[in-house]
Specification:
The chain is an alpha+beta fold and 1259 residues long. The protein is 36% helix and 14% strand.
C-alpha cells in the first residue's frame, strides 16, 4: 500500500511537470514545444517581472548571465524600436526639427536617444528640470555583480537601498551632514527640515543609539575587499621612488643611484575608475561611439533669388521632402561641439576597428573608446598658511560637456592627489652626499616625481586594457569592450611645461611645436602658419637624446646645467626627463604632445587680455588728466545683464584687486563704451578696433557649438587680431612713455631709499600669445574649447577645499580622499532614493492625471487667483508672467493722475489699438493699426482694472539648441530686442539691421472683453502687455563687423510719433544689454520729467547707447547669423573668404583641417555633397551658400594684404629692439621655472555659487 502511494505521488509529479514544461510563467500560456515557448517569451511583457533566480532555474539562454538576461528581455523591444531611426548604409540618423543629424562610422548597438525633452536642454536654474520617470535597465543592475550574486544566494540585506546604514533615518541624517555646503546656513537648515525631519520614513526612535564615528565606519566598510557591496574603485595609498643624482658623482647605472622615497601618494586604479564610470553611464547625455554631426540647411535657389524672394530661415521646414519642386536645395554643414564628434576620436575609433576582434567576444559585443580627459593643477586649501593639494581629475568624453561643466553633476572623478616634493629631501640629500641639494637638482626631482606617479597610475592592468580592451556590462544592458585612450590634458602653462618635459619659457616655449620665441609675435600671419607645422614629435630620436643625457648625468656625473647638456637639449628646449606618457604609450605611436589643448582661461583671459588691459592702464596713466578716474567712474555706471552674465563692477576696476578670469571677461565685454575717447586720435580709433577684435575673438573661442563657417570666421578673426595687435605695438605703444603702475611698483618692493619707476612695455613674446593661433585648428580636433578649458578643473577645486575644512588639518590629503569617497557613496544612495520615489510618484499620480484629463477645462481667467511667479518655471512656454492680481489700479484713474506726463498722451487709445490688433489676429509690422472710436468702444476692461507685474521671463532657444531664459525687470534689466519687420517704404537703410530695441517701462495684464462682429468670444480674455519706449538706430555711426564698432542707438524724442508703444510679450526675442555711450554725455531733451525714467536717472537720458553684442555667446551669434538654434529667424550669415578653398571647408570629412596648413593661394572651389543619397547629392552639389550680408551690411573680406607679404622684413627689427628686452609683462628668464611653479592660481577659482547649477559656460 505504501509503495502504491509513492508511485501515485511520482506519477502526479511527472504529470504536473509535463504540464508546466512548456508553459509561460508570466502569462500562463501553454506552448507546444520549447521553440514555441522561447519565441513567446521574447514578446511576453509579463515575463520580464520574474526574478533572476527563476530565470536561472529555467536556463533558457545558455552562455548568458542572469543579470544580462533580465536586461536583454527588458530592453529588447525598446532597442529594436530605437534602431529604426538609423537609416541607410552610412548609418545616418534622421534630421531633427533643427535639421541636425549624425553620421556614424559603424552602426551603434544601442541607437542614440537624441537630446531629450526641453527639461533636459534647459541651462537656466529658473527653468524646471524633470526627473526621468523610469529606467530602461533592470533595477538590480545598478548594484553591480556582487549584489546580484548576493540576491541569488538569498541575502536579505540587499533589499535595503540605504545599505550599509541600519535604517533610512540614519542615512538621511548622514547624507545631509556630508553633502551640501560646509556652512549650515538658513538654506541648509531648511534642507535639514525638508529632506530629513519631514521625510515620510523618518523615525526618531532609530536615533537612540546613533554615533557618528560608528556610522562612518559602516560607510567606509563599503570599500572592504570582502564586502559583496565593495566598491573596487576606492582609494589606495602608496609611495614612489626617484633616483637623485649629484654633480661629480658617478654610478654604474641609473638604477644604482640613491633612491628617495616620496610617501602619501593617494590614488585610485585607473581601470576601476573606467569600469565604474561605464557601468553608471546611461541616458541621452552619453555617446559611446564617435560620429560626425551635420546640419541640413536650405540654400537659396538662384532663380528664386533673382525673382526677389525674401529672406528665408536657415533650417528645413517640417514636411518639406528632398524631392520638393519648389526650387529650394539643401547642404550639409559640419558641426563641432564635443569630443565624440571630433576628428581625433573618429581617427582613434578607426584604429580600434582595424584591430582584430577578441576571439572570446560574442558578435553582439560592441567595441568602443573610453575617452579620458585629464585636468590637474595645484591649489591652495586655505586663505592663510601653506596648505595645498595637487589633485588630478578624470572626465570621460562620452559624457555631455553640459553635464561635465556642472560641478553638482559630479562628473569629475578624482584620480589622484599628488604630493609635493617633501622638505625632508634636503636632510636625505645631506645624509647621502654631505651637502645640500641645489635648485637645479630640486627642479629635476619635481619633474621625476610627477612622471613617476603617472607611471604608477598607468600600471600593467591599465596597459593590458589599453592594448586588449576591457569588457564591461554597461548600464544600458549592452556589453562593450572599452579601449582607454587619452585625448586631452588641461593645465596651466607651468604644468604643461612640467608634463611635456620642456624648459619653462625657453627658446622653444610651446609644448606642441618648435617655434622660436623671437617669432611668436607674428601670430596669425602667413609665416607663422608655416612655422607652426614644425610639430614636436615623440619618437626614437627624442628618446635617444634623453637616454644619452641621462647617462651623462648618472654615469659621468655631469651637472644638470653643464654646457654639454645644454648644447644638446636647448635647441628643442627639452629636459633630461622622459614623460611617463612617452615611456608607457610611446611604443604604440601615441604622440603625447598632442594632449595639450589650448586653454582660454589662463592663456587669453588671465594671459593675453590681462596683459593688454594692464598696458592700457599704463597708457592712461601716461596720458594723465584723470583718465584712470574717468575709466573707473564709467565702469561703475555700466548696467548689469542677465543672471550674473555681466555683474556689477567694483568701484576701482583699475586696481584689479582679487580679479578672477570671470571679472576680466566682463571687462572685455563692456570696455568699448568705457574706453571711448580716453585717448586722442588716431590712437583712440586704433585701440577701439583692437578692443572690438579682442572681444570678437574671445566670443568665437568660447562658443559651445561651432559650424564649418564659424570655424572659418574664427581663422579670419585670429589673423585679423594678430595684425591689429602688431599695429598697436608699433604705433600706440611706441607713442607713450609707459611706466609701472603703482600696484606693480609696490609688488616689486625693492628695499631702497629712492625707488626708480621702471619703464614697462607690452610683451607679447609669450607662449600665451602664440597659443591663440592654435585655437581655430583645435576645434575640429578637440571640439569646442569650452570643453577643454581649465575652468572645469578650477570649479572642481572647490570640492576638495570644502573637504579640507572638515579635516583636522593633520595629513589632510588622506582625510580629503576619505571624505570624497564617503560623499560619492552617499550621493549614489541619494540617486537611488530619487529614482525610487519618482517611480512611486508616477504610479500614484496616474489616476489623478486621468481624472484631470477628463475634467472640464478651467475658465480662461480667475480673478481670485493670486499665484506669484515661482522660482522654477516650465521651459515649454514662450514667456512667464505671474498669475497674481494683487497689484492693480483703476486704469482710467491711473491715466488721469498722469495726464501731464509726456509718456501718457493717447495712452488708452494706443492701448486699445494694440489690443484690437491682437484680438483680430493682425500681423505685427511695427506700426499699430489705427482704429476709430466706434471700434475702441468694442473693447472693455473688466472692472476697469490694470494689473501690474514686476518681472517677465522670456524663454528662448540658444544658438546651440539649448533652452535658456532671460528675466525682464523695468527697474533693473529693462531692455529687450525683437525681430525687425521687413519694410518696403523705399528707405535704403530700413532693412539693414535685423533687430529693433526698446526699454520696458511696465509689465501688466488686462482682462478684456471684446464685442462686435469681429469678436471671437464673449468671455473675458487675459492679455499680457509690455509698455515700452523705443530706441532708434543712429545711422551716422554704422556698427558691425565691417566697421569694428558696436551698433549705436538713442531714444526717440517724446514728441515724435510712436516714441512709446505697447508690445505683445510673444514678440520679444530676448533681453538685450544696452550700455550708455559715456563719451557723449546726457541730455533732458528727449523726454521731460516723467515716470518713464527711473529715479536714479534724474530726468536725463544719455545721448547715445551701445548694443552689447558681446554680452554672451548667443547674443554674438545673433549678430553673426546663421546659427542652427535660431530656427525661424531670417538668415544673416556672415561669409568669410579666407585663404583656403571654401569647398574644402564644406567637405563632409574635414579630415585635413588639423593636419595640414592653410592654403594661402587661391584655389578652385570643389563641389561636395555630404549626403549618402545620390539623388540628394545631385540636388545639393550646386551653388555656394547665399548670404544676406548685402541686406545687413556685414562683410568679411580678407584679401592678401601688404602686411602679410612684407611681415618678416617689417617686424623683425622692432621685435628684437623693443619687445624682447626683458622689460615686458613676463620677465621669467628662459630655462628657469617660475618661482611659484604650480602654486599660483591667479584668482581663477573665484566663481559664484549659482554656477554650480548652471555650469560655467555661458550660452
Amino acid at each position: 500500500m505504501r509503495a502504491q502511494r509513492i508511485l501515485l505521488i511520482l506519477l502526479c509529479t511527472l504529470l504536473l511537470m509535463s504540464a508546466l514544461l512548456f508553459r509561460c510563467l508570466g502569462c500562463n500560456k501553454e506552448c507546444k514545444d520549447a521553440r514555441g515557448l522561447k519565441t513567446h517569451e521574447r514578446s511576453c511583457q509579463k515575463n520580464t517581472v520574474f526574478t533572476t533566480s527563476t530565470l536561472k532555474k529555467r536556463g533558457r539562454e545558455e552562455g548568458l548571465r542572469v543579470g544580462e538576461k533580465v536586461a536583454r528581455m527588458e530592453n529588447e523591444s525598446l532597442v529594436q524600436k530605437d534602431r529604426e531611426i538609423l537609416r541607410g548604409r552610412r548609418d545616418e540618423t534622421e534630421p531633427d526639427e533643427f535639421g541636425s543629424f549624425r553620421c556614424y562610422p559603424t552602426r551603434p548597438t544601442a541607437a542614440p536617444q537624441g537630446p531629450g525633452s526641453l527639461d533636459k536642454l534647459s541651462d537656466a536654474p529658473t527653468l524646471s528640470e524633470q526627473l526621468d520617470g523610469g529606467s530602461t535597465s533592470s533595477a538590480l543592475q545598478r548594484f553591480g555583480p556582487g549584489v546580484l550574486k548576493t540576491i541569488q544566494d538569498g541575502a536579505e540585506k540587499a533589499r535595503d537601498w540605504f545599505f550599509p546604514f541600519l535604517n533610512v533615518t540614519v542615512f538621511r541624517l548622514m547624507a545631509w551632514a556630508n553633502t551640501g555646503s560646509n556652512v549650515k546656513s538658513d538654506k541648509e537648515i531648511q534642507r535639514l527640515v525638508d529632506e530629513v525631519i519631514l521625510a515620510d520614513d523618518f523615525n526618531r526612535e532609530d536615533l537612540r543609539s546613533f554615533r557618528v564615528p560608528r556610522e562612518f565606519e559602516r560607510l567606509d566598510s563599503m570599500d572592504a575587499p570582502n564586502n559583496v557591496f565593495a566598491a573596487t574603485d576606492g582609494w589606495h595609498e602608496t609611495s614612489v621612488k626617484i633616483q637623485v643624482p649629484k654633480e661629480g658623482v658617478r654610478f654604474t647605472s641609473e638604477a644604482d643611484a640613491p633612491t628617495f622615497t616620496v610617501p602619501n601618494v593617494f590614488f585610485r586604479k585607473l581601470t576601476e575608475v573606467i569600469r565604474s564610470a561605464a557601468q553608471a553611464a546611461k541616458g541621452q547625455d552619453v555617446d559611446f561611439l564617435p560620429f560626425r554631426s551635420y546640419w541640413r540647411r536650405r540654400k537659396m535657389n538662384p532663380e528664386r533669388a533673382a525673382n526677389g524672394d525674401p529672406g528665408h530661415s536657415d533650417s528645413e521646414p517640417s514636411g518639406l521632402s528632398d524631392d520638393d519642386n519648389s526650387g529650394d536645395r539643401f547642404e550639409n554643414i559640419r558641426l563641432f561641439s564635443d569630443l565624440p564628434d571630433t576628428d581625433a576620436m573618429l581617427e582613434e575609433d578607426a584604429r580600434i576597428r582595424a584591430m582584430p576582434r577578441n576571439p572570446e567576444d560574442a558578435p553582439e559585443v560592441e567595441y568602443a573608446l573610453a575617452p579620458l580627459m585629464v585636468w590637474s593643477d595645484s591649489t591652495h586649501l586655505a586663505n592663510f598658511g601653506g596648505a595645498n593639494l595637487w589633485p588630478v581629475y578624470i572626465y570621460f568624453g562620452w559624457l555631455s560637456k553640459y553635464l561635465r561643466a556642472r560641478p553638482k553633476s559630479f562628473a569629475a572623478h578624482h584620480l589622484a592627489y599628488l604630493p609635493s616634493l617633501p622638505d625632508s629631501i634636503q636632510d636625505w640629500y645631506q645624509t647621502h652626499y654631505r651637502t645640500t641639494a641645489t635648485a637645479d637638482v630640486l627642479r629635476f626631482c619635481k619633474k621625476e616625481l610627477m612622471h613617476a606617479i603617472w607611471c604608477l597610475l598607468m600600471d600593467d592592468e591599465f596597459m593590458n586594457a589599453y592594448h586588449k580592451g576591457m569588457l564591461i556590462h554597461c548600464a544600458d544592458g549592452v556589453w562593450r569592450r572599452f579601449f582607454p585612450r587619452f585625448f586631452t590634458y588641461s593645465a596651466d602653462y607651468p604644468e604643461k611645461a612640467l608634463l611635456a618635459c620642456i624648459r619653462f619659457l625657453a627658446q622653444c616655449p610651446c609644448p606642441r611645436c618648435l617655434i622660436k620665441k623671437a617669432d611668436i609675435l607674428r601670430m596669425g600671419s602667413s609665416s607663422d602658419q608655416q612655422q607652426r607645422q614644425n610639430w614636436r614629435i615623440d619618437g626614437s630620436k627624442l628618446w635617444n637624446i634623453i637616454a644619452r643625457v641621462r647617462q651623462w648625468i648618472y654615469r659621468r656625473g655631469y651637472a644638470l646645467t653643464s654646457k654639454a647638456i645644454t648644447q644638446v637639449l636647448d635647441p628643442m628646449s627639452i629636459l633630461p626627463t622622459r614623460s611617463a606618457f612617452s615611456s608607457r604609450l610611446g611604443a604604440t605611436g601615441f604622440n603625447f604632445y598632442s594632449l595639450f589643448a589650448p586653454d582660454i582661461l589662463h592663456e587669453f583671459e588671465l594671459g593675453v587680455w590681462k596683459a593688454i588691459f594692464i598696458h592700457l592702464l599704463r597708457i592712461l596713466c601716461a596720458v594723465g588728466n584723470d583718465r584712470i578716474q574717468i575709466l573707473n567712474e564709467r565702469f561703475r555706471r555700466v548696467p548689469t545683464f542677465g543672471r550674473n552674465t555681466i555683474r556689477r563692477f567694483s568701484r576701482n576696476v583699475s586696481g584689479m584687486k582679487q580679479m578672477a578670469g570671470r571679472d576680466l571677461e566682463d571687462i572685455l565685454q563692456c570696455i568699448m563704451p568705457v574706453f571711448e575717447t580716453c585717448l586722442p586720435p588716431p590712437h583712440d580709433e586704433l585701440v577701439m578696433t583692437l578692443l572690438f577684435k579682442l572681444a570678437l575673438w574671445h566670443g568665437l573661442a568660447k562658443l559651445r557649438l561651432h559650424t564649418e563657417e564659424t570655424v572659418a570666421i574664427f581663422h579670419a578673426a585670429t589673423r585679423s587680431l594678430g595684425k591689429i595687435a602688431r599695429q598697436f605695438l608699433h604705433k600706440t605703444c611706441e607713442a607713450y612713455e609707459t611706466r609701472e603702475l603703482p600696484k606693480e611698483e609696490a609688488a616689486r618692493g625693492r628695499p631702497t631709499v629712492v625707488q626708480t619707476v621702471k619703464r614697462k612695455l607690452l610683451n607679447l613674446l609669450t607662449y600665451k600669445w602664440h597659443s591663440l593661433g592654435d585655437c581655430p585648428f583645435a576645434i575640429p580636433w578637440f571640439g569646442c574649447l569650452d570643453g577643454v578649458n581649465t575652468q572645469q578643473g578650477e570649479m572642481e577645486h572647490r570640492q576638495v577645499k570644502r573637504f579640507y575644512v572638515r579635516t583636522n588639518k593633520n595629513q589632510a590629503a588622506r582625510q580629503i580622499a576619505r571624505r570624497q569617497r564617503r560623499e560619492h557613496q552617499l550621493l549614489k544612495m541619494l540617486q537611488r532614493d530619487r529614482e525610487r520615489r519618482t517611480a512611486e510618484q508616477a504610479v500614484a499620480s496616474a489616476p489623478l492625471a486621468e481624472e484631470a484629463r477628463k475634467a472640464p477645462p478651467a475658465a480662461s481667467h480667475n480673478q481670485a487667483e493670486a499665484d506669484p511667479l515661482p522660482f522654477q518655471t516650465s521651459p515649454h512656454e514662450r514667456y512667464h508672467v505671474s498669475r497674481s492680481e494683487r497689484h492693480h489700479e483703476n486704469i482710467f484713474k491711473w491715466v488721469s493722475e498722469h495726464h501731464n506726463d509726456p509718456a501718457f498722451p493717447s495712452f488708452i487709445p494706443m492701448l486699445k489699438d494694440h489690443l484690437l490688433s491682437r484680438l483680430t489676429d493682425r500681423e505685427y509690422d511695427g506700426d499699430e493699426d489705427g482704429f476709430g472710436p466706434d471700434e475702441h468702444d468694442t473693447v472693455r476692461f473688466v472692472n476697469d482694472r490694470i494689473y501690474f507685474h514686476k518681472a517677465l521671463r522670456i524663454n528662448y532657444t540658444s544658438y546651440d539648441m539649448r533652452r535658456a531664459q532671460d528675466t525682464i525687470n523695468p527697474r533693473t534689466q529693462p531692455n529687450i530686442m525683437l525681430l525687425a519687420p521687413t519694410e518696403d517704404d523705399g528707405d535704403d537703410s530700413a532693412n539693414q539691421h535685423p533687430y529693433w530695441y526698446a526699454r520696458v517701462l511696465g509689465i501688466f495684464h488686462l482682462n478684456v472683453k471684446h464685442r462686435g462682429f469681429l469678436s471671437k468670444s464673449k468671455a473675458a480674455r487675459r492679455m499680457d502687455v509690455l509698455w515700452i519706449r523705443w530706441y532708434g538706430r543712429d545711422l551716422t555711426a554704422p556698427g558691425g563687423f565691417e566697421t569694428c564698432r558696436l551698433h549705436r542707438v538713442g531714444f526717440i524724442p517724446h514728441d515724435a510719433p510712436n516714441s512709446f508703444g505697447f508690445l505683445d510679450p510673444n514678440q520679444v526675442l530676448r533681453a538685450c544689454h544696452i550700455i550708455p555711450a559715456f563719451a557723449y554725455g546726457k541730455t533732458p531733451e528727449y523726454l521731460p520729467p516723467s515716470v518713464a525714467r527711473r529715479p536714479e536717472e534724474r530726468d536725463e537720458d544719455y545721448v547715445y547707447y551701445y548694443i552689447g553684442m558681446f554680452a554672451d555667446r548667443d547674443m554674438l551669434m545673433r549678430f553673426i547669423g546663421g546659427a542652427i538654434g535660431h530656427k525661424g529667424l531670417p538668415s544673416n550669415r556672415v561669409t568669410a573668404r579666407i585663404r583656403y578653398p571654401q569647398g574644402e571647408l564644406n567637405s563632409a570629412l574635414v579630415d585635413e583641417l588639423w593636419e595640414t596648413s592653410l592654403d594661402h593661394d587661391a584655389a578652385p572651389v570643389t563641389e561636395y555633397s555630404g549626403s549618402a543619397d545620390p539623388a540628394r547629392a545631385a540636388s545639393e552639389a550646386e551653388e555656394g551658400v547665399p548670404s544676406d550680408e548685402e541686406d545687413y551690411g556685414y562683410q568679411w573680406n580678407y584679401d592678401e594684404s601688404e602686411d602679410d607679404r612684407n611681415e618678416a622684413a617689417d617686424d623683425e627689427p622692432e621685435v628684437e629692439g623693443n619687445l624682447s628686452d626683458g622689460n615686458g609683462a613676463e620677465e621669467e628668464r628662459a630655462g628657469e621655472d617660475s618661482p611659484d611653479e604650480l602654486g599660483g592660481e591667479d584668482g581663477e577659482e573665484m566663481w559664484e555659487d549659482d554656477f554650480e547649477q548652471e555650469g560655467y559656460a555661458s550660452p
